[in-house]
Amino acid sequence: MPQYLAPGVYVEEVPSAIKPIAGAGTSTAGFVGVVHDTVTMPLLPGRSGLKPDGTPEPADLATLAPAGEAQLVDGWETFKNLFGEIQPGNSTLAHAVYGFFNNGGGRCWVTRVAPQEETDQVETNLIAALDTFTVIDEIALVAIPGAVSDAVQGALLDHCENPYLQDRFAILDGRQTTVLTKEAIRGGVRGSSYGAIYYPWIDVGAKGADGTPVYQPPSGHLAGVYARVDTERGVHKAPANEVIRGALGLQTLVGKQGQAGLNPDGINVIRRFDGNNTVWGARTMAGASQAEWRYISSRRLFNFLRESIDEGTQWAVFEPNAPELWSKIRRNVGAFLNTVWASGALLGNTPEEAFYVRCDATVNPAAVREAGQLVVEVGVALVRPAEFVVFRISQWAGGVE
Q1: Which of 124, 201, 317, 318 is deepest in the core (most CB within 10 A)?
Q2: Is residue 22 part of a domain?
Q3: Which domain holds residue 393?
Q4: Pair (275, 357) in one structural domain
């Protein structure tokens, strides 16, 4: 308490009780992929030195990023300087990252894995590379383009479900097959609300030695679609009914009847409409026992709310656990959720219908406070996508009575 000795007016700065909660990022992606040590690297900007035989001076070339280390990539030019232009030694990863930026992505982290003779060793290294993303808090989407084994895809889901993370979402590629069954496309990978799987693979213009298309996994392009929808509409909008930029065709054309057998099993189909290759599914891989997490937008919106509140209330740790603190938390979290509701992400005509925040003696009795805990109960009414739009049409005699 300041001491006043002389008469007069004193103006003091008083900390505001409102500590705004900023929304966490939702569109930064993390990619893992194989890049050979022998890929051709581009010239550094401003360099053009050539040896007498016409080849570039090694000192003028960009240096390949080391294996097993996550690299921040903020644009296609950055990727090329770290991992090389699209070529046989990096094509799957490079096409995926290019598709990410082409479809609206802005930032991603990339960890390369060196090739191995044994397939099992490659998969082990891909799984291990996911650990490089654990300490990167901004990552919200994770993919290993082209990796379709149960082991790798299961590890992706495990990474996103990690109790110390739970702030990211896995985008998986379906198997390359023409058999339209869950077993053929999903294999034996388990269900999870923290991941979504897409089918079929897409044609991006890559050609084999015989001139036929080399189809690419869609996960990188889908991560870009997620980022684009987040920016234009918000994380509560399902990343579906969206055109995949750069997709020239599909490896397998699936019609309405074919999709009817896949959609209930959480397989999101990419369909072709009027010449556009369109994402025509919005489901997670959650099973029937997790019906509340059936839709991608529900899981990702909840991740966003949890991460935002977590990051925005760290100031409360070690504060006196008393009604004054409870009131501050109610105001801060309530103000944040009110903004989320106003954006259209929560269901309800009024904030009271859309959410509630409870932090008082009923959830913080003496036993809880003695344990050094502060409990805040938050309830939200999530909006869900209109997956099935039904019109009921009947005949009407018309006229007036």
Answers
A1: 201
A2: no
A3: 315-401
A4: no
